[in-house]
Amino acid sequence: MRLSDIAIARPVLATVLSLMLCVFGLIAFFELPLREMPDTTSPIVTVRTDYTGASASVMESQVTKRLEDELSGISGVKFISSATSDGRSSITVEFNPERDLDNAASDVREAVSRASRQLPDDADAPVVTKDTGRNDVILWVTLRSTGMSALELGDYAENVLADRFSLLDGVSSVWVGGRKERVMNVRLNTAAMAVRGVTVADIAAALRSQNVELPAGTLENDQQNFAARIERGYNSAADFNNLAIRNLGSGERIYLRDVAEIWEGEKPEDTLFRSNGQSVVGLGIVKQTQANTLEVIDEVKRAVQAQQPFLPDNTELTWTYDSSVFIESAIDEVYQTLMITMALVVLVIYLFLGQVRATLIPAVTVPVSLISAFIVAMIMGFSVNLITLMALIMAIGLVVDDAIVVLENIHHHLERGRSPLAAAWHGTREVGFAVIATTLTLISVFLPIVFMGGIIGRIFTEFAVLLAAAVGFSSLVALTLSPVMAEKLLKPAQSPSRLARYFDGAFARLETGYRRLLVRELRHGWWAPLVMVAALGVIAVLFREVPQSLTPEEDRGVVIVLVKGAEGASFERMSQAMGEVESSLMPLREEGIISSLTVRTPGFGGGVNSGIMFASLSGWDERSVSSAVVAGRIRALTRHVTEVLVIPILPSSIRSGSSTPVEFVLGGADYDQLLEWAEQLRTLARDNPGLSDLELDFDRTKPELLVQVDKQRAASLGISVTEVADSLNVMLGGQAMTTYSRQGEEYDVFLKGDENDFGRLDDLASLYLRTNGGDLVSLDNLVSLQEQGAPGSLNHYNRKKAITLSANLEGSYSLGEALDYLDGLVRDNLPDAATVDYKGESLEYRSNQSDVAFVFGLALVVVFLILAAQFESFVHPFIVLLTVPLGLLGGLLGLYFSGITLNAYSQIAMVMLIGLVTKNGILIVEFANQLRDKGLEFDEALTEAAVRRLRPILMTAFTTVAGAVPLILASGAGAESRQSVGMVVFGGVALATLLTLFIVPAMYRMLARHTRSPEHQQRRLDAVLHESD
């Protein structure tokens, strides 16, 4: 007994089954977390090693290279990159997304342990830390006040707000920008130190040894025990003034006030933070890897509101840049698209069937199938996100097909005079095989997507599994609930409405015309192979002509502006340049295009010569220009600011917000040669109008003062290289030596030389060090100084010396075109020794190309094998799969004429087309086999099958196309990705359906004349067995 037979015999059971699916599906939906995208973070482990006094070249050869050699043997490594500078090596190991972070970190520690035996003895032990790859700020909270000083405002931000926000669920860290940090400044006077015979080491030792709080044992008597504690006595400038540095004998002492100026105030730190032109303190919220962005931002906003009554007078706390605005808007847009798609599909069904009762059946079964899919999402640990919701939109056009096929065939039997019960039984049984075949075909198309690697694979795994689940449940519901509802709702010989009569008449004429045309074309079937060959040729051309990218260019409602100054640029110069850039963007604020502008210097991970701006745009329905147009205007408005390079970036859902789409890596054996190649490549690439903001991550323009220590002379005097470095570090850069307490909080005591004492190189002669005999020797007797230009760091990528060329894309120029262009430049202009690699979005794009090709090929093979097993033939599935090139042709034509790129979304849609277009071929081939088994002549069976399946084929095609229309017409947040999918589905299904109605019958007539159905083979076996008995 078949499943449909059981459902018709026990309608309550079938109804209860669907109700249970709905109940558990709704529970799963409300329990699932809500986020923008599936989790795509890759495990990242960093290894940092310090080696005081070692040059960058020594660090590279003796530390970085030896560590990289061991780390390269770890399994699951995606890439290894490193940056080496004087005294420091930093190696980043990024693993494939499927690797567990803890296990990856354990493997790295083992490799580092093995390599440590080869490192220099006096190098510090390497430090291994775990990371998650994305530390983007999701919300900026700003604090301003007219009633507090800058120091008080900074203390309040750091000690009250940052501490409170960091304790909230899902918050990983809180960046504090623009804070004026309270310190005890100790500014050394080198002349006074020289006169009194005091060195930097003397002062540092005095601070560390005297400004301490230590336990001093216990005192016990008959009644009590007392814990003795030596109190730290230095908590004010007056206290530190009286700190003794040296005893000169006969009661004479040198105090800190004799050699330094001491005051409590701001730390001499270079930092700037502004919001909408006003200096503020900013708190940047960084979420934990697995945390839900929307929930974290809501939690922080509630904390901000709760803090309002407790703010000091004349103080304002609010938020500016908010990444949840895009996410919430995008999800709302998807929900609206989902509802519109559902309404359009139901309308199409009504127009075809002309009966409200009949339309109610798919209107009920489709939501049941969609809701049921969330049960699988819950089991798999997925979330409700833009990708899974898009999967549901696409699923509407798929899951309705099963209901349509069943309903249309039941309707056909009713028209032949059968009772509703008999029509439900015969109609469902007749198409049961086709429903199961198309379901298995669709599932076999989606599941290979799970085998895709990288970030794109992680994203579309949820898409594929949810679609497969919805399709699977739709088959179950179509064979159980649909016939039960049809038996209860549909009535025989029901008088059709005027609209139904009109459409029935039109469709009858269409069937007649189609039959006549089909019969004529089948007599000349030679044209079908020619059409297939022509389609393959056009597909090959379109694959070259359609621009390709990793993801469509998204309008996320924000433009991130990177500002880069010259190497060695001072903070004052950068502050002035940032002000000019900020002023240049005022026209965009006055026009209402930019709603808020957040400015920070230095930028994240950058030096003093860097800055970053967050230009939050007004709502999508409040402006007439896209974020890409805004980025172009920002570039034009800031072109006159020549001191810095201004790089507007459109953030991506899968790319860090501060990186450009093009990251092209040149590798080689020598940095001088590499730099020559890289500069030649950049010069050539500047002629390409599609590329802008071309930058290299390596140059030799950073001003550097090379201090060469006479190690033998220093050693003979008992002076170490470390002591020389420490003294210079204090005098030139400053260093926190100890802390002091103020109102229960700890603050640094910051030791630094007077900037006026070191304006020239020969001023270092005034700095003295103490020998092992107690005498003083000036620094110029131990070191020689040399000014030079030096690279900021020596970079490796996958163990090779590397220089990265980064660039933005202009206009409609695609990432694929850019990478192919740069590959061509290297191939035509650089020697074979120059190797090419990719980073960031460029790496994901190149990896995705091969992954999609593999998945597409695997899906074709799996579909072919499943259909071969179902049809018990290798010819029938080949005929069915001939519809795939037709779908690809339609999808590519849609992309070509719409100007949409061939990206990850449109590529996945093309994989979907395999299932969408083959189901029409399955309906024709399977029914032709049935009619031949019933004794119809071959050509008659083929023609009758095509004509009888015309209505369900057109109904399913129109519903699928109708489901794609809202995606094509999508606007607002996240519309670009939906348009990519919708255009491929619309073009592919429309063209494939039109041609399938003729190509499949023609190829069936050409190839399948001598084939048989699975039932024929079974009957032959039964006959043979019967004769043998």
Task: Characterise this structure.
By secondary structure, the chain is of the alpha+beta class. Strands 1, 2, 3, 4, 21, 22, 29, 30 and 31 form a nine-stranded antiparallel beta sheet that branches. The protein has a six-stranded antiparallel beta sheet with strand order 14-13-18-19-17-20. Strands 6-15-5-16 form a four-stranded antiparallel beta sheet. It starts with a helix and ends with a helix. Helix content is 54%, strand content 20%. It is a multi-pass membrane protein. This is HAE1 family hydrophobic/amphiphilic exporter-1. It comes from Oceanimonas baumannii. GO terms for molecular function: xenobiotic transmembrane transporter activity.
Which terms would index this structure?
1029 residues; Alpha-Beta Plaits; HAE1 family hydrophobic/amphiphilic exporter-1; Multidrug efflux transporter AcrB TolC docking domain, DN and DC subdomains; alpha+beta; 6-stranded antiparallel sheet; transmembrane helix
